[in-house]
Design goal:
Number of strands: 26
Low-confidence stretches: none
Strand content: over 45%
Mean pLDDT: 90
Shape: elongated
Oligomer: single chain
Order of helices and strands: EEEEEEEEEEEEEHEEEEEEEEEEEEE
Radius of gyration: 44 Å
Structural class: mainly beta
């Protein structure tokens, strides 16, 4: 260790004195901001590729929910049913009306009943004969429910009495109205066996076996036996239907006897897609009267443009029917009992149109069709009859053009209005005109319920002009029968669920129009009565 001695600042320091005479004003100048952001100069962005490998391995699990006991709900009591309804009434022209229904009450096993009906009236116009008529019907029916099947049976007796009053009383006189009296008696029965499988893979069936005996007071008689079968099932999404029948007709009258058998087979496929559906099949007929077989297409296609608001449809088919004594006398009850009975064949019927629902309350259909019909039955007055008051039948080949329109409006359960209209154009081959076929039909119906007490019903039926044959000096010509309106009005007053009073007013225009030449109908007529339910 050592030590040293040093000396510094040997000279004296002068003292300086400052005197401040004013306040200082110091300022700080603004700094310059650097606006640039830091950035990476490298323009290549690195990418990263990752591969994932999935191993599928499902773990088996099971879950069984615990069962819940059903909840007991107390439903509303079922409405009490009445087994009988009786209607009685009377009107002008000595009109009498009685109708009775009896039906079994609610059952899971059976349904059966009986229907009785009587309607009679008398009316005689100027220069025409006595025109009294009557209808008497007895109908028995029963149905047995058997699980997936139903067995139905019925037996009927119908009597229809008319008078051939279409003769001129100023020229011809008869001493007994039984001279012009005609009575048609019908005994008929049917058995029907139907299945109701819900499984679409099953084959459902509807099989009918029927018989009738039809006769009149002139010893004309017809026996009829039919076997009809309808089978259907589903093949994937398509439905297969097969219709088949065998009809036997045996006729006896004063000119002799004849019989025929008509058999038919009608298979078709139906498919339904999102915007369209179609029906594709054919009809095969085999009949023994003319010993011929006919084959017709059975086609229908529909395209849904806007669900149910607009549906466009078109189709093509044909048909064959036998003009039996029963069918001809039903169309015209003033026919002879010795008729020429033949088959009527619709060689083609092509049609198309629009249908749909504008609202939930209003639906409509507009369509047009063209048909070629061979052996269309036409009625002509038989000049060989003593009173010229009965009709014979002639056949002709006719082309038919039809325009059809209909609309249906329903508001709740209180109001319903239905309108239907048809326009026809007929082109016959041999006849001067298509006898007794009007060129226009209009039907307007309405029903309105007020406070569940009053039911008001109205109907307007308009028939266009038609033609009747007329022979002058051996020359056949067409006599025009003017069209006519038929206005009808009805009121039902429902006092309670057991008692109802009704009043029906018919032919309010008071027109004695003629559906058949020399057969004027009743003018204004009414029917008033009571209806009891018990």
């Amino acid at each position: 260790m050592s030590g040293m001695v040093a000396f510094a600042q040997q000279k004296n320091i002068d003292t300086i004195v400052f005197k401040i005479s004013q306040q200082a004003n110091n300022t700080i100048s603004n700094g310059n901001k650097i606006n640039s952001n830091p950035a990476i100069a490298d323009t290549v962005k690195p990418s990263r590729k990752v591969d994932y490998n999935l191993t599928y391995n499902q773990y088996q699990t099971a879950y069984t929910p615990q069962s819940l006991q059903a909840i007991q709900l107390k439903g509303e009591p079922l409405d009490k049913l009445n087994h009988s309804m009786l209607s009685v009434g009377a009107g002008n022209y000595n009109t009498l009306y009685t109708e009775y229904y009896f039906n079994s009450l609610r059952s899971r096993d059976w349904d059966y009943g009986i229907h009785l009906n009587h309607l009679s009236s008398e009316y005689t116009t100027d220069n025409s004969g006595y025109s009294g008529f009557s209808y008497n019907d007895v109908n028995l029916y029963g149905e047995k429910f058997m699980g997936n099947h139903t067995l139905y049976a019925e037996a009927n007796y119908d009597e229809h009495v008319v008078h051939d009053y279409g003769y001129n009383t100023t020229e011809d006189q008869i001493f007994d109205n039984n001279t012009t009296r005609e009575r048609y008696d019908l005994f008929s029965g049917m058995l029907q066996y139907t299945s109701h499988y819900k499984d679409s893979s099953m084959v459902n069936n509807d099989i009918k076996l029927g018989y009738y005996n039809y006769s009149d007071v002139h010893n004309a008689e017809e026996n009829y036996v039919n076997i009809d079968a309808h089978l259907f099932t589903y093949i994937q999404h398509q439905r297969l239907d097969v219709n088949a029948f065998m009809h036997y007709y045996g006729d006896d009258n004063n000119l002799g006897s004849k019989s025929t058998i008509n058999m038919a087979l009608n298979p078709y496929f139906s498919t339904v897609e999102k915007h369209w559906d179609a029906h594709i099949g054919l009809k095969v007929y085999d009949e023994t009267l003319d010993s011929r077989v006919d084959v017709f297409p059975d086609l229908l296609a529909r395209y849904h443009v806007a669900n149910n608001a607009l549906i466009i449809f078109a189709g093509l088919d044909g048909n064959e029917e036998y003009n039996s004594f029963k069918s001809l006398s039903t169309m015209n009850p003033y026919v002879q009992d010795t008729l020429n009975q033949q088959y009527t064949r619709t060689m083609y019927h092509i049609y198309g149109g629009l249908t749909g629902s504008i609202t939930n309350n209003l639906s409509y259909t507009v369509s047009g069709s063209e048909s070629e019909i061979k052996n269309m039955p036409l009625f002509v007055t038989d000049s060989l009859e003593f009173l010229d008051n009965r009709f014979a039948v002639v056949y002709d080949n006719v082309k038919v053009l039809n325009l059809h329109g209909e609309a249906d409006y329903q508001y709740k359960k209180d109001l319903r209005i239905t309108l239907g209209a048809d326009w026809f154009q007929y082109t016959p081959t041999n006849q001067v005109a298509v006898w007794y076929h009007p060129n226009m039909k209009i039907n307007l119906k309405g029903e309105y319920t007020i406070h569940s007490k009053y039911i008001i019903m109205a109907e307007v039926f308009v028939l266009g002009q038609q033609y009747a044959p007329q022979t002058t000096d051996g020359v056949l010509s067409a006599k025009e029968l003017a069209g006519y309106p038929d206005l009808n009005l009805g009121v039902d007053y429902k006092y309670n669920k057991f008692f109802t009073a009704f009043l029906h007013l018919n032919n309010l225009a008071n027109t004695a129009y003629q559906q058949w030449e020399n057969y004027p109908t009743q003018r204004f007529n009414f029917l008033a009565g009571l209806r009891l339910t018990f």
